[in-house]
Design brief:
Length: 132
């Protein structure tokens, strides 16, 4: 199975796992969370490891709910990532359509103003001509 990795800071990992930054730092120090340190306080990690550790922490602390095996968890993760990519694509398409429609409205407004200016420049018939 191909392993998925991301580059995150300890603060970002903490937010993802729903724990404190200090907890993530402890996991890294103890070797419970496998990560490769980079410059600037960033780490290359498999985000599923974060999920597993946070689930384990929650299981130990609060409930005895059934944990998903790694493969199922990874499949769900990939499914969510694909959904996210699809939503981002659809958002981009919608933004492009809005931009096209905005340009069209501006063009129509300009053409409407030019028609008004041409009609307002016409000389109105004088009262004498209307009387005839």
């Amino acid at each position: 199975m191909e392993e998925y990795t991301e580059t995150l800071t300890t603060a970002q990992m903490a937010v993802r796992a729903g724990v404190t930054q200090r907890t993530v730092q402890r996991w890294l120090k103890r070797g419970e969370l496998h990560a490769t340190a980079l410059r600037g306080g960033q780490y290359v990690i498999n985000p599923l490891d974060l999920v597993e550790l946070s689930l384990q922490l929650r299981d130990d602390a609060t409930t005895k709910e059934k944990r998903l095996p790694y493969d199922e968890l990874f499949d769900k993760f990939l499914e969510v990532r694909l959904d996210q990519e699809e939503m981002l694509y659809r958002l981009q398409q919608a933004e492009e359509k809005i931009e096209r429609l905005t340009r069209r409205v501006v063009d129509l407004a300009k053409s409407g103003q030019s028609k008004k200016t041409t009609t307002s420049r016409r000389k109105r018939p004088t009262a004498e001509i209307r009387a005839k």
